[in-house]
Amino acid sequence: MHSESYCQDLINSITDPIMIIDRECRINMVNDAFLSMQDDTRENVIGQPCFKMLHHQDMHCRLPDGECPYRDVFETGKPVKVTHRHFTRRHREIIVELAASPVRDRDGSVVRMIEVMRDVTAERRLEEEKRQSLDLLESVLEGIGEGVVVVDREYRILTANKGYLSQVGKSKDDVPGMHCYEASHHFDSHCMDNGHECPVKTVFETGLPAQALHIHYDRQNEEIYVECRAYPIKDSAGNVIHAIETLNDVSERVRLEQKLKDSEEKYRDLYDNAPDGYYSLAGNGMIVEANRTFLNMLGYSRDEVIGKLYFNDLLSDESAQTCHTKFPEFKKSGQIGNLELNMLKRDGALLPVTMHATAVYDGRGNFVMSRSVIRDITERKEIDDKNRRLQAQLFQSQKLEALGTLAGGIAHDFNNLLASILGYASLAKTDLHPDNPAYQHVDIIETASIRASELTQQLLAFARGGKYDAKPTDVNTIVREVVALLSRIIEKNITIVLATDSNLRHAICDAGQIQQAILNICINGRDAMPRGGRLTVTTADVHLEAKDVQFFVDAQPGDYVRISVSDTGIGMDRETRERLFEPFFTTKEKGTGLGLALAYGILKKHSGFIQVHSEPGKGSTFEVNLLACMNDETCVKKQDFVSLRRGTETILVVDDEPMVRDLARDVLKRYGYTVLTAGGGEEAIERFRQRSDEIDAVILDMVMPAIEGREVFRRIQEMKPGVKVLVSSGYSHDRDAEELIEQGARRFLQKPFRIAELVRVVGEVMEEKQEGHGAIAEDPGRSKRV
Predict the structure, then answer these.
(1) Contacts of 698 (CB under 8 A, 6+ apart)
(2) What is the CATH architecture of 126-253?
(3) Which positions ≥6 away from 394 have C-beta within 8 Å?
């Protein structure tokens, strides 16, 4: 008894609840802490089954938290630790952690079990509340549309929500542990090291919130503008241990603001640098605003005008009176336009302008101010005059073009008729005896047909420019031959003067055609001097700027060889000059009117042009401008497309377009090559694998479905390193083609390729040594015609 009392006192001294039960699960002893936890009495507890008192069950415990420690302790004799849900006498649920240990008798048998308990209800509930709070926080963070990220003092990301992950294009597993500057900015070091403001650093240093506008990068490495706001996370001692940062994607707003700013700057710049002068007047006529153009037009500074001068101070007396007269009407109508005024510059010079004005009224309809614009009409008149001349030249060119087309069509059809007439006339003559009276009639028909044919040839020459064999030519030789011919046929009362430039560059032209054109111009000059005079022919090199050719349709600035033919004849008025090159137009009593038209057609086909200077009674000067060749050797080389190599090699043509493929096959076969074809990448690779030993070169399309030309090139290079490959494409030569050239392709062919160009380039490639470098096939369209 004394021992039991001693044991009771002993366990009562322990603050953790203690319960001792026997093998029948009956409670033998409890301490005061247990009774306090259970809110029960010792008399009510002792002798009761533990499952009834603690779990309010009528049978042995089978608990959702795990098996009762009873069996483990009594059957195995080993201590166990479990967590149980208990119920107090008043049915209050508590959570306890208990350690159950065996109590043995002298023989070592387990006769009782002692449980030491600890009430962890508050702790578990706190943990549960914490877990729920964290779940709620995570749910809140995930629900926020903008990015949220938490970083530690080493700038490593602890957690991030979906908004942030979406911004930077990363998964939830990628981000934790990464430095924020690495994930967001793709930097290798801190933002500050890269010249960027860091709000997180400010938070760690000051403990205060901070913000900044950053540039982040998404999954496509595209820039996105992010408004970053960083806030401190402190421990119980008030130390900043983490920082939470919200990142709002404001790319659209930033870009809109930038557009607005650019727009404001643009329109302010347009206002100040507009070609017209803008200004505003108060109701009393005081100048209250003006753009830079207005000030520059009149030679004033802003300080000299704004708020100091009245508009009348800047007008001539006559213009000031005009404005005074029209002002009452302007206040009523609110508009005035195209009012011509003379303004006074600061130096006293007059500036003719047109003025447009708009009135501004207040809410009650009272006149407040006016906004006006002035334009210098001196420059406008010059522009109008230039436009008129250019329009006249364009109209003249279009008219001549239309006439040329018409003339060519008529000549073509007429030649068909003449062919029948002339042919049948010739047949008829062979059937008739010369003494037959009809023979002479048929002979006249034949002669007339031949002359008509010559006339149509002149029409066709005007329409098409005749045969064309342009090459670098010595123009001095051409004019010397023309002058030599003229000296035999021209009247004695006309003096011919020839002045040539000994250092004259060669011109790109057909010598025969240019000789015909110059001869026709000279004959026109001879006919303009019926009483004699002087005909001067000169040559010179000229460089023409854009302003020199602005009134000549299709003429380009650059270097030209000029042939000038001047006469001292009767000259021409404007109406005659405008119709000068029309076929069949002539002011002579005799003549077809085709000489100058033919010259015009020839020069146009040469990409040259004719300038005419003439006034009645002052003679005329015709300036023939031909494209100069700066490098004779290069010019000759560019036109040498005639000699085309015949081959015996085997070529593989790879193209998914049947017409392109068949064309290349037929052309190359005609020039002796053996041609294999493939309609796609897979077929090309297989065809090359089967016959690589006999294939000498490949013409490879860059863009094909399934397998592109780049991959085909790589595969066939693996099978036969150094194989000669020409890449072709309907697109312009670009970086992809350039890469293949660098990797060993020999040429680039632009589609649609010309027949001669295809044969020439293939021939060049076949002649190259194996180690020859790749190149871009020369564009024949940039060469001179042959």
Answers:
(1) 651, 652, 653, 654, 684, 688, 716, 723, 724, 725, 726
(2) 2-Layer Sandwich (3.30)
(3) 553
Note if the pTM is more than 0.70: no
- Please report the pLDDT score of residue 542 as a whole number: 92
Q: Beta strand pairing status for 494-499 and 533-544?
A: parallel
Distance CA 196, CA 199 (A): 10
Topology match between the domains 275-380 and 471-635: no
Residues in the chain, pLDDT under 50: 64, 412, 416, 420, 462, 464-467, 633-634, 636-642, 732-733, 771-773, 775-786
The torsion angles phi and psi of 11, rounded to 5 degrees, stand at -75, -25
| Geometric angle at alpha carbon 494, from 490 and 499, rounded to 5° | 95
Distance CA 226, CA 213 (A): 6
Are residues 374 and 297 in contact, defined by beta-carbon separation less than 8 angstroms? yes
Where exactly are the structural domains of the chain?
A: 2-119, 126-253, 275-380, 471-635, 640-782
Element (H or E) spanning 599, and its range? helix 595-605
Listed in sequence order, the residues at least 6 apart from 238 whose beta carbon sits closer than 8 Å to its beta carbon are: none
Indicate the class that CATH gives domain 471-635.
Answer: alpha beta
What pLDDT is recorded for position 706? 86
8 A C-beta contact, residue 711 and residue 684: no
Distances (CA, A) of 231 to 81, 117, 138, 148, 237: 44, 43, 17, 11, 17
What is 2-119's CATH number? 3.30.450.20
Helix (H) or strand (E) run with residue 534 in it: strand 533-544
Q: Among residues 164, 137, 320, 364, which one has the least CA distance to residue 245? A: 164
Q: Does domain 275-380 have CATH number 3.30.450.20?
A: yes
First to last CA, the chain: 135
CATH number of 640-782: 3.40.50.2300
Q: How many residues does the chain have?
A: 786
